[in-house]
Design goal:
The structure holds 2 protein chains of 2 kinds. By secondary structure, chain A is of the alpha/beta class. Chain A has 10 helices and 10 strands. The chains are: A alpha/beta, B mainly alpha.
Protein backbone atom coordinates (compact mmCIF):
# COMPACT_ATOMS: atom_id res chain seq x y z
CA UNK A 1 0.00 0.00 0.00
CA UNK A 2 2.41 2.67 1.23
CA UNK A 3 5.18 2.43 -1.34
CA UNK A 4 2.94 1.58 -4.28
CA UNK A 5 2.77 4.43 -6.78
CA UNK A 6 -0.82 5.66 -7.18
CA UNK A 7 0.09 8.27 -9.82
CA UNK A 8 3.02 7.97 -12.21
CA UNK A 9 4.23 10.50 -14.73
CA UNK A 10 6.38 9.23 -17.61
CA UNK A 11 8.43 11.58 -19.77
CA UNK A 12 5.90 14.36 -19.28
CA UNK A 13 6.32 17.55 -21.33
CA UNK A 14 4.06 20.59 -21.32
CA UNK A 15 4.15 23.76 -23.42
CA UNK A 16 2.26 27.01 -22.91
CA UNK A 17 2.44 28.26 -26.51
CA UNK A 18 6.21 28.20 -27.11
CA UNK A 19 7.16 28.05 -23.46
CA UNK A 20 8.39 24.59 -22.52
CA UNK A 21 7.06 24.63 -18.93
CA UNK A 22 7.56 20.97 -18.00
CA UNK A 23 10.50 19.07 -19.46
CA UNK A 24 10.71 15.27 -19.52
CA UNK A 25 9.34 14.73 -16.04
CA UNK A 26 9.02 11.22 -14.68
CA UNK A 27 7.69 10.89 -11.16
CA UNK A 28 6.03 8.25 -8.98
CA UNK A 29 3.62 9.45 -6.29
CA UNK A 30 3.28 6.93 -3.43
CA UNK A 31 -0.13 5.97 -2.14
CA UNK A 32 -1.21 7.35 1.27
CA UNK A 33 1.93 9.42 1.56
CA UNK A 34 2.44 13.17 1.45
CA UNK A 35 4.55 14.36 -1.47
CA UNK A 36 5.79 17.95 -1.55
CA UNK A 37 6.88 19.82 -4.68
CA UNK A 38 9.28 22.67 -4.01
CA UNK A 39 11.23 25.08 -6.17
CA UNK A 40 11.54 28.77 -7.05
CA UNK A 41 8.63 30.69 -8.57
CA UNK A 42 7.91 29.72 -12.15
CA UNK A 43 9.71 26.36 -11.95
CA UNK A 44 6.56 24.45 -12.96
CA UNK A 45 5.47 22.91 -9.68
CA UNK A 46 1.87 24.18 -9.86
CA UNK A 47 1.72 23.26 -13.55
CA UNK A 48 2.81 19.71 -12.71
CA UNK A 49 0.24 19.54 -9.90
CA UNK A 50 -2.53 20.64 -12.26
CA UNK A 51 -1.52 17.92 -14.73
CA UNK A 52 -2.56 15.23 -12.26
CA UNK A 53 -6.29 16.06 -12.54
CA UNK A 54 -6.09 17.57 -16.02
CA UNK A 55 -6.82 21.08 -14.83
CA UNK A 56 -4.44 22.40 -17.51
CA UNK A 57 -7.07 21.31 -20.07
CA UNK A 58 -8.91 24.49 -19.15
CA UNK A 59 -6.05 26.69 -20.37
CA UNK A 60 -5.80 27.63 -24.05
CA UNK A 61 -2.74 26.77 -26.16
CA UNK A 62 -1.47 24.07 -23.82
CA UNK A 63 0.21 21.06 -25.36
CA UNK A 64 1.07 17.98 -23.32
CA UNK A 65 3.09 14.92 -24.32
CA UNK A 66 4.06 11.89 -22.28
CA UNK A 67 1.87 9.84 -20.01
CA UNK A 68 0.27 10.06 -16.59
CA UNK A 69 -1.20 6.93 -15.11
CA UNK A 70 -3.55 6.93 -12.15
CA UNK A 71 -3.82 3.37 -10.94
CA UNK A 72 -4.30 1.42 -14.19
CA UNK A 73 -5.79 4.38 -16.05
CA UNK A 74 -3.98 6.60 -18.55
CA UNK A 75 -5.61 9.92 -17.67
CA UNK A 76 -5.08 11.31 -21.18
CA UNK A 77 -6.65 8.31 -22.89
CA UNK A 78 -9.60 9.14 -25.17
CA UNK A 79 -12.85 8.60 -23.33
CA UNK A 80 -11.47 9.49 -19.89
CA UNK A 81 -14.29 10.99 -17.81
CA UNK A 82 -12.58 14.17 -16.60
CA UNK A 83 -15.36 14.98 -14.12
CA UNK A 84 -14.99 11.54 -12.57
CA UNK A 85 -11.17 11.95 -12.58
CA UNK A 86 -11.47 15.23 -10.66
CA UNK A 87 -13.82 13.54 -8.19
CA UNK A 88 -11.11 10.96 -7.48
CA UNK A 89 -8.30 13.55 -7.51
CA UNK A 90 -9.55 16.61 -5.62
CA UNK A 91 -7.87 19.97 -5.31
CA UNK A 92 -7.42 22.71 -2.73
CA UNK A 93 -6.16 26.09 -3.90
CA UNK A 94 -3.91 28.81 -2.55
CA UNK A 95 -6.70 31.17 -1.58
CA UNK A 96 -9.74 29.69 0.18
CA UNK A 97 -12.61 29.78 -2.33
CA UNK A 98 -15.86 28.81 -0.58
CA UNK A 99 -19.06 29.20 -2.57
CA UNK A 100 -21.28 32.08 -1.44
CA UNK A 101 -23.59 29.57 0.20
CA UNK A 102 -24.11 28.10 3.65
CA UNK A 103 -21.45 25.91 5.26
CA UNK A 104 -23.74 22.91 4.78
CA UNK A 105 -24.41 23.64 1.12
CA UNK A 106 -20.72 24.09 0.38
CA UNK A 107 -20.04 20.53 1.53
CA UNK A 108 -23.23 19.05 0.07
CA UNK A 109 -22.62 20.67 -3.34
CA UNK A 110 -20.32 17.98 -4.74
CA UNK A 111 -22.33 14.96 -3.54
CA UNK A 112 -25.50 16.59 -4.98
CA UNK A 113 -23.82 17.11 -8.36
CA UNK A 114 -22.81 13.46 -8.28
CA UNK A 115 -26.39 12.39 -7.59
CA UNK A 116 -26.86 12.12 -3.83
CA UNK A 117 -30.27 13.61 -3.02
CA UNK A 118 -31.34 12.00 0.24
CA UNK A 119 -31.17 14.45 3.15
CA UNK A 120 -30.06 11.85 5.70
CA UNK A 121 -27.16 10.71 3.50
CA UNK A 122 -26.14 14.31 2.79
CA UNK A 123 -26.21 15.04 6.56
CA UNK A 124 -23.91 12.08 7.13
CA UNK A 125 -21.48 13.17 4.40
CA UNK A 126 -21.42 16.79 5.64
CA UNK A 127 -20.66 15.74 9.23
CA UNK A 128 -18.02 13.18 8.24
CA UNK A 129 -16.28 15.58 5.84
CA UNK A 130 -16.23 18.38 8.41
CA UNK A 131 -14.96 15.98 11.08
CA UNK A 132 -12.23 14.68 8.75
CA UNK A 133 -11.23 18.27 8.00
CA UNK A 134 -11.08 19.06 11.76
CA UNK A 135 -13.77 21.71 11.43
CA UNK A 136 -16.90 20.01 12.78
CA UNK A 137 -16.58 21.16 16.40
CA UNK A 138 -16.15 24.78 15.30
CA UNK A 139 -19.16 24.94 12.94
CA UNK A 140 -21.64 22.24 14.07
CA UNK A 141 -24.01 24.84 15.55
CA UNK A 142 -24.03 27.15 12.55
CA UNK A 143 -24.17 24.94 9.48
CA UNK A 144 -26.79 27.20 7.92
CA UNK A 145 -24.59 30.30 8.24
CA UNK A 146 -22.75 31.68 5.22
CA UNK A 147 -19.34 30.09 4.64
CA UNK A 148 -18.01 33.56 3.87
CA UNK A 149 -18.35 34.44 7.58
CA UNK A 150 -15.66 31.92 8.54
CA UNK A 151 -12.05 32.94 9.19
CA UNK A 152 -9.45 32.35 6.45
CA UNK A 153 -8.13 29.21 8.13
CA UNK A 154 -11.65 27.87 8.67
CA UNK A 155 -12.54 28.63 5.03
CA UNK A 156 -9.49 26.66 3.88
CA UNK A 157 -10.49 23.67 6.04
CA UNK A 158 -14.02 24.02 4.64
CA UNK A 159 -12.55 23.78 1.14
CA UNK A 160 -10.67 20.64 2.22
CA UNK A 161 -13.95 19.24 3.67
CA UNK A 162 -15.67 20.10 0.37
CA UNK A 163 -13.00 18.11 -1.46
CA UNK A 164 -13.36 15.16 0.92
CA UNK A 165 -17.16 15.11 0.52
CA UNK A 166 -16.97 13.49 -2.92
CA UNK A 167 -14.68 10.71 -1.68
CA UNK A 168 -11.39 11.40 -3.46
CA UNK A 169 -8.35 9.14 -3.33
CA UNK A 170 -5.82 11.91 -3.94
CA UNK A 171 -5.86 15.52 -2.72
CA UNK A 172 -3.80 18.11 -4.58
CA UNK A 173 -2.92 21.20 -2.54
CA UNK A 174 -1.51 24.26 -4.25
CA UNK A 175 0.13 26.50 -1.62
CA UNK A 176 -2.76 25.81 0.80
CA UNK A 177 -1.31 27.86 3.66
CA UNK A 178 0.21 30.84 1.90
CA UNK A 179 -2.81 33.06 2.62
CA UNK A 180 -3.11 31.92 6.25
CA UNK A 181 -1.67 33.07 9.58
CA UNK A 182 0.74 30.79 11.52
CA UNK A 183 -1.96 29.28 13.78
CA UNK A 184 -4.27 28.45 10.86
CA UNK A 185 -1.22 27.10 9.01
CA UNK A 186 -0.40 24.78 11.93
CA UNK A 187 -3.98 23.46 11.90
CA UNK A 188 -3.78 22.67 8.17
CA UNK A 189 -0.41 20.98 8.67
CA UNK A 190 -1.84 18.84 11.49
CA UNK A 191 -4.76 18.02 9.24
CA UNK A 192 -2.45 16.87 6.42
CA UNK A 193 -0.80 14.48 8.88
CA UNK A 194 -4.23 12.99 9.70
CA UNK A 195 -5.42 12.95 6.08
CA UNK A 196 -2.54 10.79 4.89
CA UNK A 197 -3.96 7.82 6.80
CA UNK A 198 -6.74 7.64 4.21
CA UNK A 199 -5.64 9.80 1.29
CA UNK A 200 -2.65 10.51 -0.90
CA UNK A 201 -1.66 14.17 -0.63
CA UNK A 202 0.46 16.16 -3.08
CA UNK A 203 1.33 19.64 -1.87
CA UNK A 204 3.01 22.50 -3.66
CA UNK A 205 4.67 24.89 -1.26
CA UNK A 206 7.22 27.68 -1.39
CA UNK A 207 7.82 27.15 2.32
CA UNK A 208 10.64 24.62 2.62
CA UNK A 209 10.22 24.21 6.35
CA UNK A 210 6.59 23.30 5.72
CA UNK A 211 7.62 20.75 3.10
CA UNK A 212 10.13 19.30 5.56
CA UNK A 213 7.51 19.14 8.33
CA UNK A 214 4.57 17.61 6.49
CA UNK A 215 5.86 15.48 3.64
CA UNK A 216 7.27 11.97 3.28
CA UNK A 217 8.67 12.57 -0.21
CA UNK A 218 9.91 15.78 -1.79
CA UNK A 219 10.57 16.76 -5.38
CA UNK A 220 12.73 19.77 -6.18
CA UNK A 221 11.91 21.46 -9.49
CA UNK A 222 13.91 24.06 -11.37
CA UNK A 223 13.19 25.63 -14.78
CA UNK A 224 10.60 23.00 -15.67
CA UNK A 225 12.72 20.01 -14.69
CA UNK A 226 12.41 17.67 -11.75
CA UNK A 227 15.97 18.00 -10.50
CA UNK A 228 15.72 15.62 -7.56
CA UNK A 229 13.04 13.44 -6.01
CA UNK A 230 13.42 11.37 -2.86
CA UNK A 231 12.56 10.88 0.76
CA UNK A 232 12.07 14.24 2.44
CA UNK A 233 14.65 13.59 5.14
CA UNK A 234 17.30 12.78 2.54
CA UNK A 235 16.44 15.83 0.41
CA UNK A 236 16.71 18.23 3.34
CA UNK A 237 19.58 16.52 5.18
CA UNK A 238 21.91 15.61 2.34
CA UNK A 239 20.53 16.18 -1.15
CA UNK A 240 22.35 14.43 -3.99
CA UNK A 241 22.24 17.36 -6.41
CA UNK A 242 24.24 20.57 -5.92
CA UNK A 243 21.34 22.57 -7.36
CA UNK A 244 19.00 21.23 -4.67
CA UNK A 245 21.61 21.92 -1.99
CA UNK A 246 22.04 25.50 -3.20
CA UNK A 247 18.29 26.12 -3.30
CA UNK A 248 17.41 24.72 0.10
CA UNK A 249 20.33 26.48 1.76
CA UNK A 250 19.12 29.79 0.32
CA UNK A 251 22.02 30.34 -2.08
CA UNK A 252 19.54 31.14 -4.87
CA UNK A 253 15.82 31.31 -5.47
CA UNK B 1 19.40 37.63 4.73
CA UNK B 2 21.10 34.48 3.43
CA UNK B 3 24.36 36.39 2.90
CA UNK B 4 24.26 37.52 6.51
CA UNK B 5 23.48 33.96 7.58
CA UNK B 6 26.40 32.49 5.65
CA UNK B 7 28.77 35.21 6.86
CA UNK B 8 27.84 34.42 10.47
CA UNK B 9 28.12 30.67 9.80
CA UNK B 10 31.64 31.13 8.36
CA UNK B 11 32.63 33.25 11.31
CA UNK B 12 31.25 30.63 13.72
CA UNK B 13 33.28 27.97 11.94
CA UNK B 14 36.51 30.01 12.12
CA UNK B 15 36.02 30.69 15.82
CA UNK B 16 35.32 26.99 16.47
CA UNK B 17 38.69 26.20 14.86
CA UNK B 18 40.34 28.80 17.12
CA UNK B 19 38.69 27.35 20.19
CA UNK B 20 39.63 23.76 19.29
CA UNK B 21 43.25 24.85 18.73
CA UNK B 22 43.27 26.53 22.15
CA UNK B 23 41.95 23.33 23.80
CA UNK B 24 44.59 21.27 21.96
CA UNK B 25 47.32 23.63 23.22
CA UNK B 26 46.05 23.29 26.78
CA UNK B 27 46.37 19.50 26.58
CA UNK B 28 49.77 19.64 24.91
CA UNK B 29 51.17 22.24 27.33
CA UNK B 30 49.85 20.39 30.37
CA UNK B 31 51.77 17.24 29.43
CA UNK B 32 54.90 19.28 28.64
CA UNK B 33 54.55 20.98 32.03
CA UNK B 34 54.14 17.58 33.69
CA UNK B 35 57.29 16.19 32.12
CA UNK B 36 59.30 19.31 32.88
CA UNK B 37 57.63 19.88 36.29
CA UNK B 38 57.02 23.42 35.04
CA UNK B 39 54.53 25.04 37.43
CA UNK B 40 54.46 28.33 35.50
CA UNK B 41 53.42 26.62 32.27
CA UNK B 42 50.88 24.61 34.26
CA UNK B 43 49.36 27.81 35.67
CA UNK B 44 49.05 29.30 32.19
CA UNK B 45 47.05 26.21 31.15
CA UNK B 46 44.71 26.54 34.15
CA UNK B 47 44.22 30.23 33.33
CA UNK B 48 42.85 29.32 29.87
CA UNK B 49 39.99 27.28 31.30
CA UNK B 50 37.69 30.28 31.69
CA UNK B 51 38.46 31.40 28.15
CA UNK B 52 37.37 28.15 26.53
CA UNK B 53 34.31 27.98 28.81
CA UNK B 54 33.26 31.48 27.69
CA UNK B 55 33.96 30.60 24.05
CA UNK B 56 31.85 27.46 24.34
CA UNK B 57 28.85 29.36 25.67
CA UNK B 58 29.26 32.15 23.12
CA UNK B 59 29.52 29.77 20.15
CA UNK B 60 26.68 27.59 21.41
CA UNK B 61 24.31 30.53 21.84
CA UNK B 62 25.16 31.91 18.39
CA UNK B 63 24.62 28.47 16.83
CA UNK B 64 21.20 28.21 18.51
CA UNK B 65 20.37 31.71 17.27
CA UNK B 66 21.26 30.74 13.70
CA UNK B 67 18.97 27.70 13.93
CA UNK B 68 16.11 29.70 15.47
CA UNK B 69 16.28 32.54 12.96
CA UNK B 70 17.14 30.72 9.75
CA UNK B 71 15.95 27.10 10.00
CA UNK B 72 19.07 25.91 8.16
CA UNK B 73 18.97 22.81 6.00
CA UNK B 74 21.29 20.33 4.28
CA UNK B 75 24.99 21.23 4.52
CA UNK B 76 24.34 24.41 6.51
CA UNK B 77 22.43 22.42 9.12
CA UNK B 78 25.16 19.77 9.25
CA UNK B 79 27.87 22.43 9.73
CA UNK B 80 25.99 23.88 12.70
CA UNK B 81 25.39 20.40 14.16
CA UNK B 82 29.11 19.69 13.76
CA UNK B 83 30.07 22.99 15.40
CA UNK B 84 27.92 22.17 18.44
CA UNK B 85 29.58 18.75 18.76
CA UNK B 86 33.09 20.12 18.07
CA UNK B 87 32.92 22.74 20.81
CA UNK B 88 31.63 20.19 23.32
CA UNK B 89 34.51 17.82 22.51
CA UNK B 90 37.05 20.67 22.47
CA UNK B 91 35.90 21.97 25.83
CA UNK B 92 36.31 18.48 27.34
CA UNK B 93 39.83 18.21 25.90
CA UNK B 94 40.73 21.65 27.30
CA UNK B 95 39.37 20.64 30.72
CA UNK B 96 41.46 17.47 30.71
CA UNK B 97 44.46 19.71 30.02
CA UNK B 98 43.47 21.86 32.98
CA UNK B 99 43.03 18.76 35.20
CA UNK B 100 46.51 17.49 34.25
CA UNK B 101 47.99 20.94 34.88
CA UNK B 102 46.39 21.05 38.34
CA UNK B 103 48.19 17.83 39.30
CA UNK B 104 51.66 19.28 38.73
CA UNK B 105 51.74 21.42 41.88
CA UNK B 106 50.55 18.43 43.95
CA UNK B 107 53.15 16.10 42.45
CA UNK B 108 56.06 18.43 43.25
CA UNK B 109 57.02 16.72 46.51
CA UNK B 110 56.08 13.16 45.58
CA UNK B 111 58.89 10.65 45.01
CA UNK B 112 59.66 10.00 41.37
CA UNK B 113 59.43 6.45 40.05
CA UNK B 114 59.75 6.37 36.30
CA UNK B 115 60.40 8.36 33.17
CA UNK B 116 57.12 9.86 31.93
CA UNK B 117 58.08 9.11 28.33
CA UNK B 118 55.16 6.77 27.52
CA UNK B 119 52.73 9.53 28.54
CA UNK B 120 54.61 12.04 26.38
CA UNK B 121 54.37 9.67 23.41
CA UNK B 122 50.67 9.13 24.05
CA UNK B 123 50.14 12.92 24.19
CA UNK B 124 51.91 13.32 20.83
CA UNK B 125 49.60 10.78 19.22
CA UNK B 126 46.46 12.35 20.69
CA UNK B 127 47.37 15.95 19.83
CA UNK B 128 48.17 14.82 16.26
CA UNK B 129 44.67 13.34 16.05
CA UNK B 130 43.15 16.59 17.32
CA UNK B 131 45.25 18.55 14.78
CA UNK B 132 44.04 16.31 11.97
CA UNK B 133 40.41 16.62 13.07
CA UNK B 134 40.75 20.41 13.03
CA UNK B 135 42.39 20.30 9.57
CA UNK B 136 39.58 18.09 8.22
CA UNK B 137 36.96 20.43 9.72
CA UNK B 138 38.66 23.50 8.26
CA UNK B 139 39.34 22.08 4.78
CA UNK B 140 36.23 19.85 4.60
CA UNK B 141 38.52 17.07 3.43
CA UNK B 142 38.19 13.53 4.78
CA UNK B 143 41.81 12.47 4.18
CA UNK B 144 43.27 13.60 7.55
CA UNK B 145 40.67 11.58 9.53
CA UNK B 146 40.60 8.38 7.46
CA UNK B 147 42.94 6.35 9.69
CA UNK B 148 41.45 7.39 13.04
CA UNK B 149 40.28 3.90 13.96
CA UNK B 150 43.79 2.27 14.05
CA UNK B 151 45.26 5.44 15.56
CA UNK B 152 42.71 5.29 18.38
CA UNK B 153 43.53 1.60 18.88
CA UNK B 154 47.19 2.54 19.39
CA UNK B 155 46.23 5.16 21.98
CA UNK B 156 44.04 2.59 23.78
CA UNK B 157 46.86 0.06 23.77
CA UNK B 158 49.23 2.62 25.28
CA UNK B 159 46.69 3.45 27.98
CA UNK B 160 46.39 -0.23 29.00
CA UNK B 161 50.16 -0.62 28.91
CA UNK B 162 50.72 2.44 31.12
CA UNK B 163 48.00 1.25 33.50
CA UNK B 164 49.59 -2.22 33.93
CA UNK B 165 53.13 -0.89 34.19
CA UNK B 166 52.19 1.70 36.80
CA UNK B 167 50.38 -0.92 38.88
CA UNK B 168 53.62 -2.88 39.14
CA UNK B 169 55.42 0.24 40.37
CA UNK B 170 52.78 0.69 43.04
CA UNK B 171 53.08 -2.94 44.15
CA UNK B 172 56.87 -2.76 44.30
CA UNK B 173 56.98 0.53 46.18
CA UNK B 174 53.86 1.80 47.97
CA UNK B 175 55.43 5.25 48.49
CA UNK B 176 54.83 5.87 44.77
CA UNK B 177 51.08 5.25 45.01
CA UNK B 178 50.10 8.94 44.99
CA UNK B 179 52.26 9.79 41.99
CA UNK B 180 51.32 6.55 40.24
CA UNK B 181 47.63 7.21 40.67
CA UNK B 182 48.02 10.66 39.15
CA UNK B 183 50.06 9.11 36.37
CA UNK B 184 47.25 6.67 35.59
CA UNK B 185 44.77 9.55 35.59
CA UNK B 186 46.90 11.49 33.11
CA UNK B 187 47.00 8.48 30.80
CA UNK B 188 43.26 8.04 31.20
CA UNK B 189 42.62 11.73 30.37
CA UNK B 190 44.75 11.39 27.26
CA UNK B 191 42.89 8.26 26.21
CA UNK B 192 39.57 10.09 26.69
CA UNK B 193 40.91 13.06 24.69
CA UNK B 194 41.67 10.61 21.87
CA UNK B 195 38.06 9.43 22.07
CA UNK B 196 36.88 13.06 21.83
CA UNK B 197 39.07 13.52 18.74
CA UNK B 198 37.31 10.45 17.28
CA UNK B 199 33.92 11.97 18.08
CA UNK B 200 35.03 15.13 16.29
CA UNK B 201 36.06 13.02 13.29
CA UNK B 202 32.70 11.20 13.21
CA UNK B 203 30.84 14.51 13.21
CA UNK B 204 33.14 16.03 10.59
CA UNK B 205 32.49 12.99 8.40
CA UNK B 206 28.75 13.58 8.78
CA UNK B 207 29.19 17.29 8.07
CA UNK B 208 31.05 16.60 4.83
CA UNK B 209 29.13 13.59 3.49
CA UNK B 210 25.72 13.59 5.20
CA UNK B 211 26.40 9.94 6.10
CA UNK B 212 27.10 8.44 9.51
CA UNK B 213 30.41 6.74 10.28
CA UNK B 214 31.46 5.11 13.54
CA UNK B 215 35.05 4.85 14.74
CA UNK B 216 35.23 1.64 16.75
Amino acid sequence: MSDTPIISGHNLNLWYNDTHALQSISIAIREKRVTALIGPSGCGKSTLLRCFNRLNDLIDHVKITGEITFGDMNIHAPGTDVVHLRKRIGMVFQKPNPFPKSIYDNIAYGPRVHGTKEKKELDRIVEKSLRDAALWEEVRDRLADSALGLSGGQQQRLCIARTLAVGPEVILMDEPCSALDPIATAKIENLIEILKKNYTVIIVTHNMQQAARVSDYTGFMYLGKLVEFGETRQIFEHPSETLTENYITGRFG
Amino acid sequence: MTEKFHAELNSLKDETIGMAQCAREMLDDSVKALVAQDCVLAQSVVAKKKRIRDQTINLEERAYMLIALNQPMAKDMRVIACILKMITAAERIGRYGKDIANMIERLKDEPDFAEPLPVLHMAELVTAMIDDAITAFKSENLDPIREFSPRDDTVDTLWHSIFRETLTFMMENPTTITRSTYFIMVARYLERSGDHACKMAENIYYMITGERMEIK
